[in-house]
Design a protein that fits this description.
The protein is 30% helix and 30% strand. By secondary structure, the protein is of the alpha/beta class. The chain folds into 2 domains: 4-75 and 147-268, P-loop containing nucleotide triphosphate hydrolases (Rossmann fold), CATH 3.40.50.300; 87-145, no CATH class. Helix 3 crosses helix 4 (108-114) and helix 4 crosses helix 5 (130-143). It is globular. Keywords: ATP-binding, Nucleotide-binding, Transport.
Amino acid sequence: MAVIEIEEVYKEYEGFVALKGITLSIKKGLTLLLGPNGAGKTTLLKCIVGLLNFEGEIRIMGYDVLREAVKAKNFLGYLPQKVSIYENMKCYEIVKFFSELRKIDLDVEEVLKLAELEEEYHSKFGELSGGMRQRFALALLLASDLPVLILDEPMSNLDPMGRRRFEGMLRELKSDKTILVSSHSLGSLLPYADRVVVMNEGEVVFDGELDQFLSMLDEKFKAHVKTSEGWFTITAKTFEEFMDSIDGRMVEEVIFEEIPIDQLIAKISGGE
């Protein structure tokens, strides 16, 4: 059953068509939304969460995001590219404010521990670095235990350790949540994706399961898998086969080499 239903969504800005009739049906699990800057990813996510008007229809858990906004947003957590929270509010005040807003019981210490910001209890949000802000916002979102998470470039301000922690969170959460994550590069999120959607110039140019996506990639696209027996370098095309051949408990880390997004688009379009 689809959790997010997107039907013929068009969005135009002063004569520029940002979305050209997007239709998608997103189920439970992790969907990775890929595309170059300007492809329309952020515009689509803002439409899904009801921040922009648009032509067409989007439903979350059956509720229309424009006509039934309050009901739809009860299921939804959103992390934008640029985290903007009240700059003069202290971290503990933000957690309490969010608890009251969402009518949920969030423990301040637990949220700050999840974000590795235990020492910032009384710090103002405006005093935090970019990476700290990102970790705090992620922890706040994940602690809220919402069934649908929309994350726009969530790894952009995280250091390597923060990225690994976030990847681990996604791996644990995706079994019972619907997670849509946008990115302009493959990076390390790919192995956790159940489905990959690629956008370019306001259109969907690929929509399929992870194994379908990997099957399109040739020998030059590599994956590095760290197991209890050491590192293995394999082609992305044989990633699924390799993972099926070993005990999943052996896997400690997976890193896909960055694929230039223009090469990816050309590959999908049959240009190389």
